[in-house]
Amino acid sequence: MHKFLPIAYFRNKFIPFAEANISIATHALHYGTGAFGGLRGIPNPQNPQQVLLFRLDRHSHRLSNSARFLQHDLPADKIQQIIIDFVKKNQPDKSFYIRPFIYTSDLGIAPRLHNIDKDFFVYGLELGDYLPPDGIVCRISSWHRQEDRSLPLRGKISGAYITSSLAKTEAVSSGFDEAILLNSQGKVCEASGMNIFIVRDGKLITPGFDQDILEGITRDSILTIAQDLGIPTIERPVDKTELLIADEVFLSGTAAKITPIKKIENYQLSPDRPITEKLKQTLVAITENREPKYQDWVYVVDC
C-alpha cells in the first residue's frame, strides 16, 4: 500500500492529495497523451531540516523536452520551482519519489495534440527499494521495445508504457522479478523501466541512444562516475548472448537506483560484482551529498 505525500500540485495550486482528481473523460486517460518524470528525494542524513533532490535540473529539463512532444511549452525552470515548492509544502521525513506529469486535460474523444488544453500536476509517495537491492532474476521478454520512428522514445510518454506493463507482468507471472526487452533489431534494449549495463573484462558496456533506449538520467550519472573512477565505458549494441556470459549485469533507474541481476532465464551470473558495487556505493554517497565533486548534482531544499 503506497503512502502518498499529503499535498499535491494540481491546476496551478497546492491542494490536499485526496482532492486532486480528474474526470473519467480526460483526454490523456484515453489516448496516453501525457508525459511524466520521476525523481527521488531523501532527508539529508547530516541535517534533518533539509531534503536532498538528485539531479533536479536534469529531470526538469528532460520533462520540459517531453512536453514539447505534446506540443506544450513548459519551461524547465518553472518545473523545477514547482517541485521545490512541493517539497517545502510536504516536508517529507522518509525517502520518497516525486512524479510530475504533463497531460492533455480536455474532455474529448478525438486523438490529437492541437487545439487542446494541457495541464501539469505533481504528487509524491514514500519509496524505499523498488527492487530487491541484493539482486534480481530476469527473463527476456517476448515483447519488443518500440522504435523511435513510431514513438518519441526520448520522452517519457505515458502511452508508450503499455509495452513496459506487458513485459513486467509477463516476467512476474512466469516467476521472474523483471523483464529485459530487445529492440526491433533483436539487440538488448532496456528493462521495463530501467536502463541496462553489462561488465566484460573490466569494461562497462551499455546500449547507446541509437538502440531505442530512454535517455536515462541515472544512466548518464553512472557513465560519468565510471569514467571518473577510471573504468572504461563503451556505448554500443549488445547481443542477448552477451548477457549470459557477462561478468556483471545490472539495471539502473531513478526508482531502481543500481540493481544487480543474479540470474537471466536459467543462466546464473557471478555473485562477485566489484564494479557494480563500487558504482553503487559511489552513487549512494553522491545522493547523500557526501561527495564534494558531485555537489552540483544534489539540490538542497531547506524545509
Task: Describe this protein's structure.
- With 303 residues, the protein is α+β, with helices and mostly antiparallel strands.
- The chain has 2 domains: 7-126, D-amino Acid Aminotransferase, Chain A, domain 1 (2-Layer Sandwich); 136-287, D-amino Acid Aminotransferase, subunit A, domain 2 (D-amino Acid Aminotransferase, Chain A, domain 2).
- Helix content is 26%, strand content 30%.
- It has 7 helices and 17 strands.
- It has helices spanning 27-31, 56-69, 76-90, 161-173, 217-228, 240-245, 274-287; strands spanning 7-10, 13-16, 34-36, 39-44, 47-54, 96-104, 118-126, 136-140, 178-182, 188-191, 195-200, 203-206, 233-235, 248-253, 257-264, 267-268, 298-302.
- Strands 8, 9, 10, 11, 12, 13, 14, 15 and 16 form a 9-stranded mixed β-sheet that branches. Strands 1, 2, 3, 4, 5, 6, 7 and 17 form an 8-stranded antiparallel β-sheet that branches.
- Helix 2 crosses helix 3.
- The longest helix has 15 residues, at 76-90.
- It is globular and about 50 Å long.
- The two termini are 26 Å apart.
Helical content band:
25-40%
Give the full name of the CATH homologous superfamily of the largest domain: D-amino Acid Aminotransferase, subunit A, domain 2
Order of helices and strands: EEHEEEHHEEEHEEEEHEHEEEHE
Number of domains: 2
Count of strand segments: 17
Shape: globular
DSSP summary: helix tally: 7
Report the biggest beta sheet as strand number plus sense, adding barrel if it closes: 9 strands, mixed
CATH class of the largest domain: Alpha Beta
Structural class: alpha+beta
CATH topology of the largest domain: D-amino Acid Aminotransferase, Chain A, domain 2
Q: Strand fraction band?
A: 25-35%
pLDDT under 50 segments (min length 5)?
none
Average pLDDT reading: 96
User: If classified by CATH, what would the architecture of the largest domain be?
Assistant: Alpha-Beta Barrel
Radius of gyration: 19 Å
N-to-C CA distance: 26 Å
